[in-house]
Amino acid sequence: MTTASATPQALADPVRPRLLSPRAWTGVMVALAIVVVVVPVLSLVVPEGSALHLSEFYVGLVGKIMCYAICALAIDLIWGYTGILSLGHGLFFALGGYAMGMYLMRQIGTDGQYRSELPDFMVFLNWKELPWHWALSDSFVAQMLLVVLVPGLLAFVFGWFAFRSRIKGVYFSIITQAMTFAAMLLFFRNETGFGGNNGFTDFKRILDIPIATTQMRVALFVITGLTLIGFFVLARWLVTSKFGRVLQAIRDAESRVMFTGYDPLRYKLAIWVISAVMCGIAGALYVPQVGIINPSEMSPAASIEMAIWAAVGGRGTLVGPIVGAFFVNGAKSWFTQTFPEFWLYFLGALFIAVTLFLPQGIIGLVRKLGRRGAPEERS
């Protein structure tokens, strides 16, 4: 009698999986120690002549890849767990970067080439005053709010109409790519006030602190690393919750989810906006570390690469896309220096190989090998 009465309650309130396993928490703590302690010590304390010294180049390179990893994680939430393949997240990444870039351009002040309070490209184009959308660009707080609000609002409006119209599959992917391409063409125009083809560059300071110093680069590295770790834990919390279970049900059988009384629109729209905001924040962290933002970040190829990172690492795993971002971009950095003319061929071959032979990505391969190596349980 007790068992029979307890069964419906167990079904109604299933036990939530733990956030992370002990091994996973150990990995998070190791990553945290590397970001907060190891890298700053190797870069700031260890002398430059030492073999253990970490140069500014590698600090900036890893910081940039961590920004890409945030984007890959965002793609995994909507593609790996919800079944929505976006080929337009490069737009959200670039919008966050432009919001940060506007503030950095104002921080240049009169140190620019033309010694004007206006950004150099505006002086060159004979602009007499800042356009209306630059009104709050001298406020760090206001621009950081725009880093979140602009990608989030655009994603909400676009997602509302797309998901409400039941657009899905390859059609949704094509529309997101078209949206990104249209925005890229818009930002290429000089009259929009975003620097045209050249975009924003030649940054001097952030929060009135010189940006081209080892200390600032390490600080940006630490902030980016903490953001990536924080987003990973947040993503894990989302996918292990009831919200995440509904997302995975939508991915597997959306029509059945509707028949059970859930509204897929709200769930898809929510995760779509969250992933867009994550990419916007990644773009804002990317710009001061790389030193430039231009419309090429909105190119269709940039968004396709994000999907490749998730596919190579293993979508639907969270950690896989992070591994994929580091693997692909690390290889890209090496190939572009060693075999620059063959890099695009390598990228295409990698994507084809993963699609044909590693449908679950690097993480799937590692897990498969781990199961083979594990001793069989005795009955």
Per the principal axes of the C-alpha atoms, what is the gross shape? globular
Proportion of helical residues = 55-70%
Number of strands: 4
Query: Distance between the terminal alpha carbons, to the nearest Å?
Result: 32 Å
Succession of helices and strands? HHHHHHHEEEHHHEHHHH
Strand order of the largest sheet: 1-4
Rg measurement, Å: 23 Å
Model description:
The protein contains 14 helices and four strands. It is globular. The model is unreliable at 1-12 (pLDDT under 50). A hairpin with a 2-residue loop joins strand 2 (205-206) and strand 3 (209-210). The chain has a domain at 62-298. It starts with a helix and ends in a 6-residue tail after the last helix. Helices cover 69% and strands 2% of the residues. It has a two-stranded antiparallel sheet with strand order 1-4. It has a two-stranded antiparallel sheet with strand order 2-3. It has helices at residues 2-12, 22-45, 56-80, 89-108, 120-124, 140-164, 169-188, 214-239, 242-259, 264-290, 300-313, 319-338, 343-357, 361-373, and strands at 200-201, 205-206, 209-210, 292-293. Helix 2 (22-45) runs antiparallel to helix 8 (214-239) and helix 6 (140-164) runs antiparallel to helix 10. The chain has 379 residues and is mainly alpha-helical.
